[in-house]
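Holo model, manganese (II) ion. Inputs:
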Amino acid sequence: MLLGAHVSISGTIDKAVDRARELGCNTFQVFTRNPRGWKAKKLSDEEIEEFKRKMEEYNFRVAVSHMPYLPNISSPIQQTFKKSVSSLIQELERTGALGLKYLVVHIGSHLGKGLDNGIKKAAEAVNTALNKVDNNVMILLENMAGQKNSVGSRFEDIKRILNLIAYPDRVGVCMDTCHAFAAGYDFRTGDAIENTLRDFDEIIGLKLLKVVHINDSKGDLGSHLDRHEHIGLGKIGDKGFRELFHNPHIRELPLILETPVDSRGNFATNLAKCRELYL
Ligand code: ZN
Ligand code: MN
Ligand code: MN
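Output:
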């Protein structure tokens, strides 16, 4: 089982590897910088070396970086779009420098300009970044919950973006279970999961699914609410996750928790829950 959580990089980025290890994870996700601003502090060579050394020492085979919150690669506003592309370029470089394999990107919002426009902008952003940065990092498009104006909550939308990418072997998909459920894809039973994954396979292709964000959902099926819940305490529930973890297409992939930390639980409790359901 490749199970991990989104860990903090507080201090220096190599500390994230310690945190993942202390949680008993064998994979993890990080932001390479403060996710709440546009500016990124440069990663020092020492930090990068230490990060890579710990990855080796603790035997982490795969880990994931996630784009910060502010960029919107589907934006119709020229200035935001340009900044978002710069940020994507920068994160591709940083992810590569850290020796990580995947960079997860939210597809974003068309801000009322329409899905077609959003899809075109997202593809343009990814193409520009991949053209500019030549490394081994794969960009993973993350499905959205279907909030107002969001791009990429339907598998069909993601496929349309992928069709426009000039570097097909450098893009894949990260599926967030909370987002997919909120968008109307059911995970509550074995049959429902089979249907959802069959849709994914027919429309996108399961071989492009590289990472799964495992989050339960506060919102109901099709609610379009991006509200993560502790595993088992949300609308997907224990049964859904047990079935999901036993699905052969999901079971072998890196599974990353982005669950809340509050009075009802934290990453340690959610990891324990996942291990119990995985057996
Ligand atoms: Zn995400
Ligand atoms: Mn996610
Ligand atoms: Mn989310």
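The pocket of manganese (II) ion (ligand 3) is lined by residues 176, 178-179, 226, 228 (CB under 6 Å). The chain has ten helices and ten strands.
Archived with the compound record.
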